[in-house]
């Protein structure tokens, strides 16, 4: 496991950061596990991501909510990772439909500000300074960004609170929208349909329960699945992996330290 640094606190809601540093004897590779947040990575070592089309990404990278067949790798780990709730990502990065499952260069979203921020990060001498630089960059975007609809924000938070078990019809009734309108606004501002967003949140809970050592049958029962086979299909739809393989995913092994 690499050395992990986390900031003491933060000013912006829905923003979490962690720094990772370490060196492996041999290059390592891992598959990314979907997570209910937009992930921003700024790399200072030799880390790389390869997407489903075999395109390689380095430097400042933004990963969507539901990436498919994206793998990471490297030997010298030295990177800063930021997790943005979809609500904050919409306001800070201008994201929505176009990045629901994609990988993008930060420069394509922030233009010249991305290069300036990354250069400042490379010359910073401590994780504390790096965290401060990123928070300042995000705060500038937050001040001028467009906030998501209050109904969308409420809907996302209700989904998170229910761990993805809230029915879309009930959520639409709670916000006073038709199912069609809720579907459209979620796709535009969250990047996923309400049903897929709820499934992602539930999958994340399941993945962490599996990684904590709980068996698939008990996790299926407590998470509202019809049976263990239903859970296996859902896990496979997000990762192409079995529950056993997800439980051993290196990406999850650092979560208890980096994202407590």
Helix/strand-derived category reads alpha+beta
Number of strands: 8
Helix content: 40-55%
Radius of gyration: 18 Å
Order of helices and strands: EEEEEEEHEHHHHHHHHHHHH
Terminal Cα separation, in Å? 16 Å
- Uncertain segments are none
Number of helices: 13
Largest sheet: 8 strands, antiparallel
General form:
globular
Mean residue pLDDT: 91
Task: Give keywords.
globular; 260 residues; 48% helix; eight-stranded antiparallel sheet; alpha+beta; single chain
Give an account of the 3D structure.
The structure is a single chain. With 260 residues, the protein is α+β, with helices and mostly antiparallel strands. The protein has helices at 86-93, 106-110, 112-123, 127-144, 150-161, 168-175, 179-189, 194-211, 216-222, 228-239, 243-247, 250-253, 255-258, and strands spanning 3-5, 15-31, 38-43, 48-50, 56-57, 60-63, 71-84, 103-105. Strands 1, 2, 3, 4, 5, 6, 7 and 8 form an eight-stranded antiparallel beta sheet that branches. Helix 9 crosses helix 10 (228-239). The radius of gyration is 18 Å and the shape is globular. The model has no long low-confidence stretch (mean pLDDT 91).
Write the layout of secondary structure elements.
Blueprint: E1 3-5, E2 15-31, E3 38-43, E4 48-50, E5 56-57, E6 60-63, E7 71-84, H1 86-93, E8 103-105, H2 106-110, H3 112-123, H4 127-144, H5 150-161, H6 168-175, H7 179-189, H8 194-211, H9 216-222, H10 228-239, H11 243-247, H12 250-253, H13 255-258
Antiparallel strand pairs: 1-2, 2-7, 3-6, 3-7, 4-5, 4-7, 6-8
Helix pairs in contact: 1-4, 3-4, 9-10
